[in-house]
C-alpha cells in the first residue's frame, strides 16, 4: 500500500502509512506535522509496532499532543494535535 | 484504547513455547549433549522477547536521533551495554568468559559505516530484522534473506575480485601458511582476513591500562568502568546537549518562564534516560541475559569437556560441515550474522558449490546442518520469542512487502552482509558484545555505524520529501 497524506477537512489531516516499516512512519509523521499549522489535527494510521515508541517520543519532544490512541489487530490509529 | 488479547493469539503463544519445550525435552532424551543447543535456544527466546517488548533495534538508535530527534534507543542500548558489561566483568574475572577480542584498526569503522547505511535502508539492524520477522513482517524476512545470501557469497568470492587485493595482503596471507585446502591466496575475504585483519593489534581497555583482563581489577576497572561506563556517559551527555536539552529548555521556560538550574539539567538528563520505560526495561533484561549466557555456555563446555560445539556434534555422529579444525561457529554469547551465512552456505554446498575452501567456513565456522547448528537454534528461538511477545500484545500481523520496501530490504541486507563480514560481526557481535567486553574495536565499529546512519537518514529525508511533495501537490496544499 502506498503512503497517503490527505486533507479530510479544514485543519484535519490523515496520514496512512500502513505496510511501511522503520523509519518511514516516523519520518512521514514528522514531515506531515511540520507542514501543518498549530492547532491542526493529524490522524496517523500505521502497523509497524517499532515506530510507536519513536513517534510517541517525537510528539512529546516537539511539543505536540497525542489526543487519541487506538490499536486493533496490529493497526495503530492515533490522533495528534499540533502544538 | 487497546484491544484485548484474543484466545487465538494466546493459544499460538503457548504453542510456540510448547514447541521449544518439546524440542528441548525430546532431544535431551535422545542425547544429553543436546542440552548445549537448548541453552542457546532458551537464551534466543529471551532475547526475542526482550527485543520485541522494548522495540529494541540498534538501527533506530542514531537513525531516529538524526531523523526525528528521538534519543530513546541510544539510551536503551547504553543501558543494555552497561549491564551486560557489568555482568560479564564478573564472568571474565572468574575465567568463565567465552569472548575472543577482535583486531582493532580502521577496518572496523569502514565496516560499521557500510553496515550503518545498510541498516537504515533495511529498516532494522541484524537483530532487529530477526525480531521483526517474529512480528510477521515480510520486509524483515527479506532483509534476513538478503544478509544471509550476501555473506555466503561474499566470503567465498574470488576470480576477478582477487585483482582488487593489494599485493601486500596476498603475500601476508600466504605467509600465514594455512592448510593448503583453505587456499588462502585465493578469495578476497581470505586475503583481507589473513593478509590484513589478523595483522592488526588487539586492544582491550584493561590491557591498555596495564591490567590483566581476566582479573577483578582488569575486568571491572579497565573494561567495565573505563571501557564502557565513561564513554557511554559521555555519549549520553552529547546526546542530551545536542538533541534533548533545547526542547526540554523550551518546555520548562514555557511552564515557568525562567532559566535552567543545575538541578533542572540533572532532571532533564534523567528524564531522557527514563523517556521510554519499555526500552530501558528491555535493555536491563537483555544486558543481564547476555552476561549469563556466557556463564552457562562455558559451564556446559566444562561439564562436557569440550571447547567448541563441533566436538559435541562429532560425538553425536554429525560430522558433516565441521571446519578442518573440527569446529563450528559457537560464540558462547549472543550473535546474529554468522549463523545466517552458515545456513545459506549449507544450502549452497548441498547444491554443489564447494565453499569450504575458505577461512570463514572451511577454517573457522563450518557449515553444519542448520537443524543441529547451536547458533541457528538461538536465532530461530529469537524469532519465536518475538512472535510470542507480539501475539500477547496484539502486535502480530503478517505483512507482505511492497515493491518499494522489498527494494530497500534487499539493498539494506546486502550492505549489512558486506559490513558484517568486513567487521567480523554485526551490530551485536561487532558492536554490542565487543564494547561490553572492553574491546576498543567495538567503539570503532560503532563510530562507523553512526556515520552510516547519518548518510542513510540523509537519503531517506530526500526520498520521503519527494513523496510528500507529490501528495501535497495533489491536495493543493
Describe the structure.
The complex is a heterodimer of chains A (83) and B (477). In chain A, helix 1 (24-35) packs parallel to helix 2 (49-61). The model of chain A has no long low-confidence stretch (mean pLDDT 92). Chain A has a 5-stranded mixed sheet with strand order 1-2-3-5-4, covered by helices on one side. Chain A starts with a strand and ends with a strand. Chain A contains 2 helices and 5 strands; from the N terminus they run E-E-H-E-H-E-E. With 83 residues, chain A is of the alpha+beta class. Chain A has helices at residues 24-35, 49-61; strands spanning 4-9, 12-16, 41-46, 65-72, 75-81. By secondary structure, chain B is mainly alpha-helical. Chain B is 70% helix and 0% strand. Chain B is globular and about 75 Å long. The chains are: A alpha+beta (83), B mainly alpha (477). Chains A and B meet through strand 1, helix 1, helix 2 and strand 4 of A and helix 3, helix 11 and helix 20 of B.
| Overall body shape of chain A | globular
What is the strand arrangement across the widest sheet of chain A?
Answer: 1-2-3-5-4
Structural class of chain A: alpha+beta
Question: Which residues of chain B sit in consecutive blocks of at least 5 with pLDDT less than 50?
Answer: none
Taken in chain order, the helices and strands of chain A follow as: EEHEHEE
Oligomer: heterodimer
Identify low-pLDDT runs of chain A. Answer: none
CA-to-CA gap between the ends of chain A?
Answer: 30 Å
List the chains of the largest interface with their residue counts.
A-B, 40 and 58 residues
Strand content of chain B: under 5%
Helix content of chain B: 55-70%
Radius of gyration of chain A: 11 Å
C-alpha termini separation of chain B: 32 Å
Sheet with the most strands, sense and barrel status of chain A: 5 strands, mixed
> Helix coverage percent of residues of chain A?
25-40%
Q: What is the CA-atom radius of gyration of chain B, in angstroms? A: 23 Å
